[in-house]
Amino acid sequence: MKNLVRFDWAMKRLLRDKSNYVVLEGFLSTLLGEDLHICRFLESEANQKDSTDKFNRADILAEDTRGRLIIIEVQNNRELDYFHRMLYGVSKTVSEYINIGDAYNKVRKVYSINIVYFDLGQGNDYVYHGKTEFRGLHGNDILQLSLRQQEMFKGKYAGDIFPEYYVLKVNDFNEVAKTPLDEWIKFLKTGEIDDNATAKGLPEARERLRIDAMTEAEKRAYDRDMEALRYQRSVIQTGWIEGHANGKAEGLAEGMAKGEIKATKEMAQKMKKLGMPTNTIMSLTGLSEDDINKI
Asked: What pLDDT does residue 84 have?
């Protein structure tokens, strides 16, 4: 067993405690490249309580001292439509946290931070950042806010108002930490923090997320959840392997069947060229009269 609890479990049980804000603030500050402080946690539609979803993913919705909303989600299992769910989650958050009748300038800035433990899309990197950019079709310039808008919305470009997305493909990290962000991702992947790791929040995580610092009840709950997660992953992996093998076998059988049909039709075509009667071709090939007429 590793010395530190998994980050997603900590998100559910430990990091919501105000005394532990420093850990999450360190992670967010390192990722976003700024000094960020959490004001409070808000309700999120994906705060799962049922026995299945609580192992699949963990998420929190935080508000920082600048009023920005930050969605942090950890997803363990493969979802082909995960990008769509990212979009839905941000859209729902934007709409939920503006009051009816409020001016549009009350729309909050939203960051969607997604920590995934499966292959998502295709790419060579392990951290991706997506944001909206308005670029001129003719001059290739980037649309900026007016001076008045910059004063009001604390940004320079029109795209700064729009949501931003981060995808951390944890399993693609090679475990050689070269930057503070790498130190965090190594922790997310391995559950371990190097003695010389100095990224903001990690020294506190090393101390406050220790398994041996938990109560006996917390340890038992953690062990149960980790065993359930291991079992679920095993079931999913086994199902994928068996499904892949069955699909391959079915594909091979389907390919052979298509090949036989093609060969039969080619034989029937040659018979027609030789002037053989349709009834004879039907008898020799098993094709219908319509099939032979279409050849």
From this structure: 94
CA 91 to chain centre: 16
Q: What pLDDT score does 125 carry?
A: 96
Give the span between the Cα atoms of 190 and 188, in whole angstroms: 6
- The pLDDT assigned to 224 comes to 83
pLDDT value, residue 210: 87
β pairing state of 38-42 and 69-75: unpaired
Structure tokens at 55: 């192992």
Of 79, 103, 195, the closest CA to residue 152 belongs to 103
Tally Cβ neighbours within 10 Å of residue 153: 15
- Residue 188 tokens, joined: 């997310």
DSSP H helices in 60-163: 82-96, 147-153
Q: Which residue has the tokens 């371990």?
A: 192
* Total Cβ atoms within 10 A of residue 71: 23
* Secondary structure letter of residue 106 according to DSSP: G
78, 237, 253, 254 from 265: Cα distances, Å:
43, 42, 19, 17
Q: Name the residue among 212, 225, 180 with its Cα closest to residue 198.
A: 180
Residue 49 is predicted with a pLDDT of 47
Q: In Å, what is the CA distance from 87 to each residue of 116, 121, 194?
A: 15, 15, 35
CA distance 126 to 292: 56
Alpha helix stretches (DSSP H) within the chain: 7-13, 21-32, 53-56, 82-96, 147-153, 180-190, 202-208, 216-273, 278-285, 289-294
How far apart are the C-alpha atoms of 223 and 231, rounded to whole Å?
12
Handedness of CA 89, 51, 119, 195 (dihedral sign): positive
Q: Could you say which residues of the chain have pLDDT below 70?
A: 1-2, 44-57, 231-259, 283-284
- Indicate the angle between helix axes 216-273 and 278-285, nearest 10 degrees: 150
Instruction: State both tokens at 126.
Output: 């392990």
The amino acid present at 234, given as its one-letter code, is S
